[in-house]
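From: lab user (bench 3)
To: helpdesk
Subject: output format question, protein + thymidine-5'-diphosphate

Hello, I'm new to running complex predictions and I'm not sure whether the block I got back is the full result or only part of it. Here's what I submitted:
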Amino acid sequence: MKNIIVTGGAGFIGANFVLHMLNKYDDYNIIVYDKLTYAGNLDNLLDVKDDPRYAFVQGDICDAEMVEATIQKYDADTIVNFAAETHVDRSIMNPDAFIQTGVYGTYVLLEAAKKHGMRYHQISTDEVYGHIPEGYSSVETDKLDPRSPYAASKASGDLLVNAYFITYGLPVTITRGSNNIGPFQYPEKVVPLFATNAIDEEPLPLYGDGRQMREYQYVIDHCEAIDLVLHKGVLGEAYNIGTGEEMENVEMVEILLKTLNRPHDLIKHVKDREGHDRRYSLNIDKIKALGWVPRHTSAEAVEKTAVWYRENEWWWRKIKSGAFKEYYEKQYGHRWQTEK
Ligand code: NAD
Ligand code: TYD
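Helpdesk reply: Thanks, we reran it on our side. This is the complete output you should expect:
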């Protein structure tokens, strides 16, 4: 492995992964290949923009010619695919781009990897397992049971990756991460949305009763686990990456408000998300057996993320004052009226 294409590397987790890799290894070249959708942001990569081991290409993973030209230009030997549409609420409003990128785009990358004999790693999610009843945690061999268009697009990607391993012997691995939080997360996702709203003393729209459970994990922990699987993972296998502890949204909000010193009455219970998965829970024994442990608890991750948003207004204020406003009105406008 020498020349690694990181698709979706200008997004939240992808950018953190690129920073992690360039920081940890001297001898890898990283080529970020990203369409720069509303969620892609070169501000996330400012720290490495002049690094000779880093290059940026603006391109769509559905564009086979551009993918091919990029692999050839940089003599790339590895693809790590973060590129996706990632917000469940947007997938409910309009699934089209989710299917394009998650299904067709993944297929384009797999074809390119097959042609050039490349190592391929797919970034997936705990959402492919669907809602998990209490008392159980998902293992990697469980059947995929996605319930939102987003989750279905990701599960489809996983199935394609598996098919390329079995049919063509492509050297692949998959990681299924739980909810990531930390620097550079677009403020449509719950933790950065609530942190930035709280900083501005705006209401926090908590869906339904707020008792849904998520495993909030610190993004750098996730990136370290992906790095480990890329180097030591067994080919053809999937690995769950989480904290092993779930947290209700109501608890997450309390930690946020306490960290930011904001009042409880900012919380507004609003109409629930359609088809809302109440609980995800990952069994992480398999990734632990490779030698990884999460370095942050969920509570620490929430606190650290809140502090980052408080200290980095330069990053998020321009996002929230732009096209985001239109999305926010569309997504939440009617919800305030249905407040419980
Ligand atoms: P993000 O929305 O912040 O970033 C996605 C990036 O992909 C953006 O830079 C965007 O421009 C790019 N992109 C989108 N469509 C593209 C296309 N067709 N071609 C090229 N680039 C394209 O997402 P994120 O939160 O960083 O998630 C990254 C990956 O991790 C996704 O595959 C997601 O499913 C997965 N994941 C996310 C979480 C989470 O909590 N955020 C948890 C588990 C897994
Ligand atoms: P989100 O960050 O969208 O991630 P995902 O749905 O992929 O897990 O949401 C995390 C949790 O927070 C989920 O249970 C939905 C809830 N949520 C709210 O209560 N209010 C919000 O405004 C948003 C965006 C999410």
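A quick orientation on your result: The longest helix spans residues 96-116. Let us know if anything else is unclear.
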